[in-house]
Inverse folding.
């Protein structure tokens, strides 16, 4: 029975004399009873119950040990003598089953183990009307009733998913336990949350090779443990290069370090031993021979970078070698290993050891506009096939779900419907472990999603929209109808276009949103702001409006930038800059700031361009050097820019304002993949320190008719080429 149904039972029962009286006119008539020697978690559960009952009724309900109960009505919390007699005989202390029973003589609140008891207290409080909508006391709903009675009822339930994880701190973790998430929390909280899952402090994230074998400790003595890249051994990095997994002695030292970490964190039940984020794989003969022996040295197209060498067998071979050694000392610990980018597919020859948990990322290919099981979505069809292959080789699969996609610039990303369908799909496939990539910080956009996922992980058959509606009603009160219209319009903005999207706003946003629906959402926010609500609701509406208005204008900015890329119309670029700056007037988003910082450069130089260094002054004019790594360092300096002819059947004239001392004798047009055709200027540079204009005429037959934008490149080697402006015209 879910909490909404339970409330209906409590409110509708006609038998008044069967009620269990807890508080009467603000005076406590009950006591919270705990075992004589309660665990820290049971103590916390009892204190939480007392805290919220006081907030509801004003009454201070005492917490007393089992052996010191007076004649008050009992609310037993945890395995008291009375609770042990009341709970079902098959209640397993190792599971998170929740058991609550109210009878005229009192209430029993217990569960499978301490964690089950803690969750049972929160489910009982939900039955009294409490709600935890978002992190922070200000986002809780606590009803006020001076007299508190409970009708007879029994709640006996257990979570559908064994692991219900997200990464949060502080208020987020307190919210997480209240809604039934069981990790990833801090080890410092383990004693009071029933030892929910946590990463060890030494390895607080998922990409850990660089932390388990740190450069500072090992590189000088064991450079052979580090990757051979371009003919030399290089240090590892969290965002790049990996280890040389075939190096003698590495497995033993890696495993010894993991064992030591578990020794130092006895309550910790899992850690990640996953590669660093990105590629940078070792190219030594031993590693490449390992690939050849295990998977034939094959390639994969997973991971957004086109065809790549497949590294799944290498990664899981190494994981199994480490896992075998860890299991000798810690057989009950789980080792998480990402299945990600070019090691997302199951390995060909290796089967994960029993203590190795494949951490399967729905990253690439991915289409977040549709459920994973939707056969009409080709990216999701591919991922679903990959996922099914994983479930056939191991029952240990853990889903890595991008609930808050960090690369999406905090733009509207309505995924409640597809993600709810995904949870049902995962459960049907036998998957019982789920991780949300989310810090829960962006509730104005994603609050209904966070709340629904927490509930669906307990019962994936629940109605996700009904859960979201409950969240909206609780969060916005009198403004809820208009806020419901807002969230529906945002969702409709993507549904109406039917466009897929993944993780790249500049690529995916143009054309993704229906403009009329975005305006409908904005109007709904304006109406909600006028609702006769209290200050708390007005503040919540204002926070949603601030975040959404940023997204509204950033969407316009990205659409205008796409128009410029396709047409080279300077007015479109100016519109993009104006809309972007308006967006940043509401919310500053680091990724968006970083990725749009080049727009001013594009406006000044005149075309979309890459490969230039920082701005400098020559001859009184601002310019950029095509050798972005610096003058005189011997490194390559290849720059590119894109032109978009209005009529691709006609020749194009490219004019470049170039410093006369530059080493520029030609440009090259990219007519096909890896095919560049040189074009020389009408007149050469003088070699003198002055600004000059080079004119290049590009014949129509030199351009690629299948492209809107034609890519032009120049430079190479350590060539110094200073450019101030590039203009394109067609005679």
């Amino acid at each position: 029975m879910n909490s909404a149904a339970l409330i209906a039972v409590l409110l509708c029962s006609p038998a008044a004399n069967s009620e269990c009286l807890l508080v009467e006119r603000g005076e406590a008539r009950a006591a919270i009873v705990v075992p004589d020697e309660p665990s820290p978690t049971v103590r916390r559960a009892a204190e939480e119950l007392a805290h919220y009952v006081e907030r509801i009724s004003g009454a201070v309900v005492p917490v007393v040990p089992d052996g010191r109960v007076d004649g008050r009505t009992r609310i037993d919390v945890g395995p008291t003598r009375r609770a042990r007699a009341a709970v079902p005989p098959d209640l397993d202390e190792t599971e998170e089953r929740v058991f609550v029973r109210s009878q005229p003589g009192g209430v029993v609140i217990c569960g499978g183990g301490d964690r089950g008891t803690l969750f049972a207290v929160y489910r009982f409080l939900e039955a009294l009307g409490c709600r935890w909508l978002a992190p922070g006391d200000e986002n809780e709903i606590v009803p006020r009733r001076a007299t508190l009675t409970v009708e007879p009822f029994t709640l006996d339930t257990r979570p559908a998913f064994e692991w219900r994880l997200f990464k949060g701190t502080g208020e987020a973790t307190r919210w997480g336990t209240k809604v039934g998430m069981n990790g990833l929390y801090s080890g410092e909280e383990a004693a009071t949350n029933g030892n929910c899952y946590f990463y060890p402090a030494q390895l607080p994230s998922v990409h850990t090779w660089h932390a388990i074998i740190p450069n500072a400790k090992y590189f000088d003595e064991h450079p052979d443990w580090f990757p051979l890249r371009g003919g030399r051994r290089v240090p590892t990095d969290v965002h790049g290069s990996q280890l040389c997994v075939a190096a003698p002695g590495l497995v033993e030292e890696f495993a010894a370090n993991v064992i030591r970490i578990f020794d130092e964190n006895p309550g910790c039940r899992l850690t990640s031993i996953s590669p660093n984020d990105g590629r940078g794989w070792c190219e030594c003969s031993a590693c490449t021979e390992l690939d050849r022996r295990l998977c034939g040295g094959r390639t994969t197209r997973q991971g957004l970078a086109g065809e790549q060498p497949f590294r799944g067998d290498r990664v899981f071979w190494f994981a199994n070698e480490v896992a075998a050694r860890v299991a000798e000392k810690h057989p009950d610990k789980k080792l998480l290993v990402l299945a990600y980018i070019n090691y997302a597919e199951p390995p060909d020859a290796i089967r994960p050891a029993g203590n190795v948990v494949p951490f399967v990322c729905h990253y690439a290919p991915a289409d977040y506009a549709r459920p994973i099981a939707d056969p009409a979505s080709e990216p999701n069809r591919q991922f679903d096939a990959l996922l099914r292959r994983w479930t056939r080789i191991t029952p240990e699969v853990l889903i890595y779900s991008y609930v808050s996609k960090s690369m999406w610039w905090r733009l509207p990303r309505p995924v409640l419907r597809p993600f709810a369908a995904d949870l049902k799909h995962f459960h049907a496939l036998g998957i019982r472990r789920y991780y949300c990539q989310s810090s829960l910080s962006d509730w104005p956009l994603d609050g209904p999603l966070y709340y629904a996922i927490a509930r669906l992980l307990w019962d994936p058959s629940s109605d996700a929209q009904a859960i979201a509606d409950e969240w909206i009603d609780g969060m916005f009160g009198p403004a809820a109808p208009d806020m419901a219209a807002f969230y529906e319009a945002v969702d409709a903005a993507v549904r109406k276009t039917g466009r897929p999207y993944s993780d790249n706003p500049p690529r995916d946003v143009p054309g993704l949103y229906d403009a009329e629906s975005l305006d409908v959402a904005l109007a709904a926010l304006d109406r909600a702001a006028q609702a006769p609500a209290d200050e708390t609701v007005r503040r919540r509406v204002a926070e949603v409006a601030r975040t959404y208005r940023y997204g509204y204008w950033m969407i316009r900015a990205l659409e205008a930038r796409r128009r410029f890329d396709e047409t080279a119309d300077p007015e479109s670029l100016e519109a993009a800059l104006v809309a972007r700056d308006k967006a940043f007037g509401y919310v500053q988003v680091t990724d968006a700031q970083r990725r749009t910082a080049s727009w001013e450069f594009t406006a000044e130089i005149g075309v979309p361009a890459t490969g230039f260094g920082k701005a400098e002054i020559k001859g009184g004019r601002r310019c950029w050097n095509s050798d972005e790594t610096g003058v005189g360092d011997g490194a390559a300096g290849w720059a590119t820019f894109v032109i978009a002819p209005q009529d691709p059947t006609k020749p194009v004239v490219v004019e470049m304002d170039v410093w006369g001392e530059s080493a520029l004798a030609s440009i090259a047009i990219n007519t096909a993949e890896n095919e560049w055709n040189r074009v020389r200027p009408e007149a050469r540079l003088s070699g003198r320190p002055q600004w000059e204009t080079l004119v290049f005429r590009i014949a129509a037959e030199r351009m690629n008719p299948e492209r809107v934008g034609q890519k032009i490149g120049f430079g190479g080697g350590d060539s110094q080429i200073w450019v101030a402006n590039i203009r394109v015209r067609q005679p």
Notes: The two ends are 74 Å apart (CA to CA). Residues 199-361 form one domain. Residues 535-567 form the longest helix (33 residues). The mean pLDDT is 93.
